[in-house]
Amino acid sequence: MTRRTFHRAPEAERRHDLIEATLDCIAEFGLEGATVRQIAVKAGVTAGLIRHYFQTKEHILQEAYRVVIARLTEKAERVTGDPQTRLRDFIVINLTEPVTNSRSLSLWAAFISRASVDPALAAIHREGYLGFRDALEGLLHDFLSERGADASKERCRHLAIAVNGLLDGLWLEGCLAGELFEKDELVDIALTSIEALLGQTIDRTGLSV
Fold it and tell me: How many CB atoms lie within 10 A of CB 9?
């Protein structure tokens, strides 16, 4: 176990450092093993200082889960360019590093196992899921509209649910057994499958698929 160097910094940065230490502990020991004491050791601070910033262990876990959800979605939600490029990049980002790796999976699995019985974590999960799906729905609407295809709200919602499910499954495949696939093979499978769902082709210029 390594100790972080906890330096004098603004409160927001200190909270960030403590959350990072919490995520390190969860990845290493799981939710139950990530005690306040273990987090303090990882951060190189006292348990009392952690309680100064977070009232309880549950509070810091909630903030840590928000960070996990944000990291799984924020890069994809910030894609730029024309509608086709944004949709394609959204797909690629969700199936490549750093979103798709063993650490992301271990953190997600640790929290999702608790979310079904913890209302606060369940609410954070729901908020993250809906935010991700809404972003995807918007990308699909713009892409289909540009092609002159049916981009009704109901169709885009149904497609967003289907595409999200597809990406989730391939993300799990990549996290659990990424070494079994060729470079960008999962991206190629995702693009081909989504093209079939949409009835539209997606330009792959610049991709190695």
Answer: 11
Average pLDDT, the chain: 91
Q: How many helices (H) and strands (E) are present in the chain, helices listed first?
A: 9, 0
CA distance 167 to 196: 14
Rg (CA), the chain: 19
Whether residue 39 contacts residue 29, with contact meaning beta carbons closer than 8 Å, is answered with: no
Find all residues with CB under 8 Å of 142, minimum gap 6, and list them: 83, 86, 87
The answer on pLDDT for 199 being more than 90 is yes
Residue 33 structural domain: 1-54
State the pTM of this model: 0.86
Same domain, 78 and 167: yes
Pairwise CA distance, residues 187 & 97, whole Å = 12
Q: How many domains, the chain?
A: 2
Is position 69 within any domain? Answer: yes
Tokens of 30: 């799981």
163 and 85 in a common domain: yes
**pLDDT for the residue numbered 54:** 93
180: confidence class by pLDDT, cuts 50, 70, 90: very high
Q: How confident is the model at residue 14 (pLDDT cuts 50, 70, 90)?
A: confident
Let me know whether 48 and 17 are in one domain.
yes
